[in-house]
Each structure stands twice: as structure tokens, then as C-alpha cells.
Amino acid sequence: MMSAIPESATNSPDWQVAAEGDHKPASLLVQLRRRAFIFPWFRFVYAEGDNREAEITFATHSIKITGNGLAALIAALAGQRVIRVIEPTENEANFEVRGPGAGKYQGPAIHSITVKKFGEDE
């Protein structure tokens, strides 16, 4: 029997996780600063990472996420419960704040997201 997703996995303004009783989401929305991607979970291959980096691989794309506290995100990815990941603005990432008028944010956070299509030049 699988255990519930840790509380820290649902505690970041940089990603959204489906509630425990909800249906699994059909897709993952990756919101970059100027572009968005939608990846269907049925095309998910694997994910790996640690507290500072996460890599999510789908059949056609690789998503690299850097930040802190990302082990919580990896735990949520294991259950395919993540609805979206959001790249913060440059100011939010550089100054470690979130939202308008926000103070310093200390929790799990994304600093940057890179999406690469397989076969594209580096």
C-alpha cells in the first residue's frame, strides 16, 4: 500500500498537487515565464532528482527543474499527482520571494525550468 504524499510536497507556491481523494490529473502543465507546455501523464517515462534538481522525462521531452527542497516534488511525481509546475519570475527566483509584495520565502521552491524536445540542438 502506498503512503500518502508528504505535506511538504503540497506546500509550495511553485507547484500544484492533486488532493489525496481527487482523481489523478490527466496531464502536467509546465508554466514557463513566456510559454506553457502540457504533457499527458500517459506519456510519462520517469523522474529523478534530489533537493536541488529534478528531471522529468516524457516520451518526447525532458524537463529539468532547479531549486531547493525539490525532493518533495519528486515524491509527488512518483504518484503522478502533480497538476502543474510554475517557473517563478526572475525577481522571485533571484530574491527568493513569491507573489506581489511578498516577503522572503523559505519553503520548497523552483528557481528555473528548462524544457527540451528530444532531437533539438542544445
What is the gyration radius calculated from CA atoms?
14 Å
Q: What is the share of helical residues? A: 10-25%
Strand percentage, roughly? Answer: 35-45%
What letter string, H or E per element, gives the SSE order? EEEEEEHEHE
Structural class: mainly beta
Number of continuous helical runs: 2
Low-confidence stretches: none
Quick one: how many beta strands?
8
Q: Main beta sheet: strand number and arrangement?
A: 4 strands, mixed
Rounded mean pLDDT is 87
Characterise this structure:
- The chain has 122 residues and is mainly beta.
- It has one domain.
- Helices cover 11% and strands 39% of the residues.
- It contains two helices and eight strands, in the order ββββββαβαβ.
- The protein has helices at 71-78, 90-95, and strands at 15-17, 27-31, 36-40, 44-49, 53-58, 61-68, 82-86, 109-117.
- Strands 1-7-2-3 form a four-stranded mixed β-sheet, with helices on one face. Strands 4-5-6-8 form a four-stranded antiparallel β-sheet.
- A hairpin with a 4-residue loop joins strand 2 (27-31) and strand 3 (36-40).
- The radius of gyration is 14 Å and the shape is globular.
- The chain starts with 14 loop residues before the first strand and ends in a 5-residue tail after the last strand.
- The model has no long low-confidence stretch (mean pLDDT 87).
